[in-house]
Design goal:
The chain is an alpha+beta fold. It is about 30% helix and about 20% strand. It has a single domain (about 10-330), classed as Catalase core domain (Catalase HpII,  Chain A, domain 1, Beta Barrel), CATH 2.40.180.10. The protein has helices at about 15-40, 135-145, 155-165, 170-180, 225-235, 285-290, 305-330, and strands at about 50-65, 80-90, 105-110, 115-125, 190-195, 195-200, 205-210, 235-245, 265-275, 280, 305. A hairpin with a 5-residue loop joins strand 3 (about 105-110) and strand 4 (about 115-125). The protein starts with 15 loop residues before the first helix and ends with a helix.
Length: about 325
Amino acid sequence: MPDPLKYNKDYDRLTDEEKVLFEINKKSISDFVEQSASLSDVNYATRNAHAKTYAVTKGRLIISENIPQEFEHLFDKKIYDLTIRLSNAHLKINKSKKDIPAYGFAVKIKDEQANLIANYPLVNFPLFPINSVCTFLKLFTSINQFYIKKWSSFSLIAQIVKVIPSTCTPSFIKNLFKLFQKRNDFILSFDFYSVGAYRLGDYMVKIKLAPQSVDKKFTKSKKMKEAAEDYLKSKTFSADVYIQLCYDIKKQPINQLNVEWKNSPFIKIGELKIGKEDILDPASCENELLSFNPYESKAFFQPVGKIQRLREEAYKVSLKTRVKINKLLKYEA
């Protein structure tokens, strides 16, 4: 294999138009979170994506003995402590038994002093349907405004139509078909992925989490939240952690998120484990206010790419608004 490409901040750079649209989008995020308690019929402000929590748990990341030599200096410990949140991607909390099969597995990695090393919000679909930052911002703003009833459904439909062409790649269609086949499977039986790329030291990688021997039908006859809690209380969960390296920007594109990376083998860097006693109370103030902003990670673990760049301020706006509202609605300051 050739040498991996090194990170360059040009991959992240936004245009002036994109920055203007982002400011509009940030206001729509704040507006949505301010109304989220009534939208989801709960007594606290929710996130504006992945609002529904299935479980919050502790865990451990055990680093492999044979990781590539160029990454050994990034992992000076054998075992790292984790905080993990399982969620559904919907903007609102669905009270019915059946949820859309769009799941999140967010991981917070900490050192022995409980200082943050990295946040990784992983999802069970490896691709993202939008490459254009402007298109994404307009769509996301339309969705927020649709829910808070300031824009009509016509505006939202118009933005959705613009996205359809980018979902027609062979990679995207193949993964949609795979998701449809697994639509009724248990959340912890899915593989989870970083949507875009991340830095790993000087290089750029994608991340994959592959569970070991999880019964995909464990959820049968149960709501997903109940199934996730029952599983984590009764079984040990293990998953292999892999990375793919970016060697060639044409075969492993950073800002083209609707195609899979080619000619980049998966490299195992460790195992993630959750014990039977690790589950936490998801309704506690501390856990409800958890944020997994990947830009709060140490510099050499942060995201790469233009769509990824939007996450930094979006997470900050969402958390700031949630903290403000939740102190009024539910929690003491």
